[in-house]
Design goal:
Elements (H helix, E strand, L loop, with lengths): L8 E4 L1 H5 L8 H12 L3 E5 L8 H7 L3 E5 L4 E6 L4 E7 L4 H15 L3 E6 L6 E3 L13 E2 L11 E7 L5 H12 L4 E6 L2 E5 L5 H12 L6 E5 L5 H5 L3 E4 L5 H6 L2 E2 L7 H10 L18
Parallel strand pairs: 1-2, 1-12, 2-3, 7-8, 12-13, 13-14
Antiparallel strand pairs: 3-4, 4-5, 6-7, 6-9, 9-11, 10-11
């Protein structure tokens, strides 16, 4: 009987991690994911993008199975064969609390620009005047007032400041928002407010529970602080070479950047024929040893 792989679940972030800078998944990464699948491991995408923002990518990957979307607010099941999927679970952000949270942030740092991801498989991203999408390839609709952001249920709010950097804005938002929402930094120019107590860690735990896979058998890949809760629920944590220092400090190892197929490098080592044990291959971040 074949020996089961040490890791039964490969959890990957998308932007800055599995996706190359041009928003594609390389042939090498596809082959590495297939190698893991052949060894008996499942691939689980864990992303901040809402369901509508990943449908095209799922189709391109012929991805079937669970997907954690919207910073853990959505658990989606994709069906590559049918070309569709279904939303298994969704947690909406209280809109009154979200509006109050924005007001508290603005009381500290002045005017901010906001956007929202609407709930549901057909929800859209709405952006108010002045908000610039961090990823211009993702669709968005501009609204004329902040009130228009709250016309339908939302899963999260995206916040930008005209002058403050991401780390500074995240720190201010956490202090100002309190228990109104979970504040996280999801990428360059992407500070987000999600429902309190909901994050990538809760989403990963829900998916792994449905799959019957324990945390110790999960290998996770990420690049930004919003991946920290996912790392906390995984047996082996891999930060990308382009990762934020906060994530690098929490990682078991640091691989190459997303531009250099860092995910594939580790998967080839873990799931290749006679794969080497964890801890060989890519060296840890020298600044952490």
């Amino acid at each position: 009987m074949p020996t089961p792989p040490a890791y039964a679940l490969v959890a990957t972030d998308l932007d800055g991690t599995l996706l190359r800078p041009d928003n594609t998944v390389s042939a090498r990464s596809r082959a590495a994911l297939a190698l893991a699948a052949d060894a008996g491991a499942r691939h689980l995408i864990v992303t901040g993008r809402p369901v509508p923002g990943i449908r095209a990518l799922l189709a391109d990957l012929a991805y079937t199975g669970l997907v954690v979307c919207g910073q853990g607010t959505q658990l989606y099941e994709a069906d590559a064969e049918a070309g569709n999927g279904r939303l298994l679970r969704s947690v909406a952000l209280d809109r009154e609390a979200a509006d109050t949270a924005l007001g508290k942030i603005e009381a500290e740092v002045g005017a901010v620009f906001a956007a929202v991801d609407q709930d549901g498989v057909d929800g859209v991203t709405l952006i108010e005047a002045g908000y610039r999408m961090p990823n211009p390839t993702l669709p968005a609709q501009r609204v004329t007032s902040r009130e228009a952001l709250w016309e339908r249920p939302v899963i999260k709010v995206l916040v930008r400041h005209p002058e403050l950097g991401d780390d500074a804005l995240t720190a201010v938002a956490r202090g100002a928002v309190g228990d109104l929402a979970t504040v996280t930094m999801a990428g360059p120019g992407t500070v987000e407010l999600a429902p309190r107590g909901v994050d990538k860690g809760t989403g990963l735990a829900a998916a792994a529970g449905l799959l019957g896979i324990g945390a110790e058998r999960i290998v996770a890949f990420g690049d930004m602080p919003n991946d920290l809760p996912m790392f906390a629920g995984s047996g082996h944590r891999v930060a990308m070479g382009n990762a934020h220092q906060e994530l690098r400090a929490a990682a078991d190892e640091v691989t190459l950047s997303n531009a250099e197929d860092g995910v594939a490098v580790v998967l080839e080592r873990l799931f290749g024929t006679g794969g080497a044990p964890v801890g060989t291959g890519i060296a840890p971040d020298p600044s952490l040893v």
